[in-house]
């Protein structure tokens, strides 16, 4: 059993809360607090919402309910209220003690039986804005969030395939063609104003790291119907405004369950919220209970605890079909394969260089094959190149290889053998160790013609031109 509460507004501007046809309360809409008011004093002002929902009568009904789950069926004006901040008399929150979801009158196709679960993670934090100006302020903690989620997936004992995809619209669309799938999206979110009205967007990136807006209505129609089973939008303003609410749009488009944020969600809380959600869900509990547990991870942050909004289709808040097995989670780190040497490692983070990283990416996008970074010693050439190689490794199908001459005495023979060793391995390099310069060069060029990768050459200033598909030489 679950408790279904109907929230309707009448012509007199009142909100009518009713349960099984019985009216629990009638509250003037203009007496209900705004989101800003709730965040300013969540536990105290949130009691007004609790009274509007039905107060003690509703709590008693939930206490006696086997599922201890409240489903809100809201009309358009009622849907604009931040009900997730409803607070009890003991300064706790209704949505923390009981499950609380917003139910939509839509159906969702069933998940395929006995199919491995796909977990798709996309984290976007553009280098520059849409005008090309560098974004050097607060950076999202995407790497830590991804590592902690990976640990949660690895210990689940569930047959699943997890992948981190590049932060572009095309990469996301390619990843959402195979289900059943969970989509975790960590990025910036916003509300923009268009000729058609307010619209929620998420900030992805183009292939060069520039801000690329993805509108909520496009995200909602991106996957084939039935692929997505759960979407977590860890992005601000993604459950805000009925017509622009991305989480709501996803559920009306056929996704069974979606979670978005109805305000500015703190980046530092994204990781504990997600870990609690997935840990509970992969233990076999319902989607409703997983969201309740995730809210508990926010319990010490009253101004944030009510920001996540969970939307569900009819009868779609139960457990996901899971198959015991070995999780296939893959390696830590950014998308793509960057094999960097110990001498060539990116600082974490690299500060103040977003414009240069974007400029490097643009040079390759224009078709250039060789890029040389020059300058006096100590200005951070290697740090810039290493950061670029790691961040954009996904652009090359065969990843990034690195040769460093930071501590070697270099001559032409040393250079050619180092390239052969890195590109083709030690046994192959030994076959050409005694060959003449022309033979060694011809073998390097033969390999590079069919290799879709980026070659990073560190500390070899005399190397200026190379026939590699992509090469980054650092003076």
Structural overview:
The protein is 31% helix and 23% strand. It is α/β, with parallel strands linked by helices and 475 residues long. It has three domains: 3-100, no CATH class; 117-312, Rossmann fold (3-Layer(aba) Sandwich); 338-474, Rossmann fold (3-Layer(aba) Sandwich), CATH 3.40.50.300. It has an eleven-stranded mixed β-sheet, sandwiched between helices. A hairpin with a 4-residue loop joins strand 1 and strand 2 (14-19). The longest helix is centred in the N-terminal third of the chain and has 13 residues, at 142-154. The model is unreliable at 463-468 (pLDDT under 50).
Kindly name the structural category: alpha/beta
**CATH class wording of the largest domain:** Alpha Beta
What's the domain count? Answer: 3
**Count of runs of 4 or more consecutive helical residues:** 16
Care to count the β-strands? Answer: 19
- Alpha carbon gyration radius: 27 Å
Shape: elongated
Strand numbers in spatial order across the main sheet: 3-2-1-4-5-14-13-12-8-6-7
Stretches where pLDDT is under 50 for at least 5 consecutive residues are 463-468
Distance between the termini: 69 Å
Mean pLDDT: 90
* Biggest pleated-sheet summary: 11 strands, mixed
The helical percent reads: 25-40%
Q: Remind me, CATH topology of the largest domain?
A: Rossmann fold
CATH architecture of the largest domain: 3-Layer(aba) Sandwich
The proportion of strand residues reads 15-25%
């Amino acid at each position: 059993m679950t408790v279904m509460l109907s929230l309707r507004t009448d012509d007199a501007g009142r909100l009518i809360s009713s349960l099984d046809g019985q009216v629990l309360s009638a509250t003037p809409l203009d007496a209900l607090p705004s989101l800003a008011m709730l965040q300013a004093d969540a536990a105290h002002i949130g009691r007004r919402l609790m009274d509007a929902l039905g107060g003690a009568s509703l709590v008693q009904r939930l206490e006696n309910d086997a599922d201890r789950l409240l489903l809100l069926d809201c009309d358009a004006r009622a849907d604009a209220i931040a009900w997730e901040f409803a607070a009890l008399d003991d300064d706790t929150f209704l949505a923390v003690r009981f499950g609380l979801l917003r139910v939509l009158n839509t159906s969702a196709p069933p998940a395929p039986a006995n199919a491995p679960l796909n977990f798709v993670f996309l984290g976007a934090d553009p280098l520059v804005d849409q005008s090309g100006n560098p974004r050097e302020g607060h950076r999202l903690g995407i790497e830590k969030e991804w590592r902690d989620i990976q640990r949660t997936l690895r210990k689940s004992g569930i047959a699943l395939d997890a992948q981190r995809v590049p932060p572009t619209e095309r990469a996301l669309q390619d990843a959402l063609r195979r289900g059943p799938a969970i989509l975790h999206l960590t990025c910036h979110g916003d509300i923009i104003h268009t000729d058609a009205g307010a619209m929620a967007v998420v900030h992805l990136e183009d292939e060069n790291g520039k801000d690329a807006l993805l509108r909520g209505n496009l995200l909602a129609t991106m996957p084939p119907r039935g692929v997505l089973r759960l979407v977590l939008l860890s992005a601000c303003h993604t459950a805000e405004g009925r017509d622009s609410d991305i989480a709501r749009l996803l559920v009306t488009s056929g996704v069974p369950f979606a979670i978005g944020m109805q305000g500015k969600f703190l980046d530092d809380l994204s990781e504990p919220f997600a870990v609690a959600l997935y840990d509970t869900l992969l233990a076999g509990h319902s989607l409703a209970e997983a969201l309740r547990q995730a809210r508990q991870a926010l319990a010490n942050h009253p101004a944030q605890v009510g920001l996540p909004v969970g939307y569900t289709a009819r009868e779609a808040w139960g457990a996901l079909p899971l198959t015991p097995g070995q999780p296939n989670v893959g390696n830590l780190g950014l998308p793509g394969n960057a094999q960097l040497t110990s001498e060539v490692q990116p600082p974490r983070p690299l500060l103040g260089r977003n414009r240069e990283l974007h400029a490097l990416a643009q040079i390759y996008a224009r078709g250039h094959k060789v890029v040389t970074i020059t300058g006096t010693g100590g200005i951070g050439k290697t740090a810039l190149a290493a950061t670029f190689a790691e961040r954009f490794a996904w652009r090359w199908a065969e990843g990034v290889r690195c040769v460093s001459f930071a501590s070697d005495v270099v001559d032409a023979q040393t250079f050619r053998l180092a390239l052969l060793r890195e590109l083709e391995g030690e046994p192959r390099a030994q076959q050409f160790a005694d060959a003449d310069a022309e033979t060694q060069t011809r073998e390097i060029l033969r390999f590079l013609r069919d290799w879709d990768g980026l070659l990073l050459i560190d500390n070899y200033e005399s190397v200026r031109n190379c026939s590699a598909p992509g090469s980054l030489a650092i003076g």
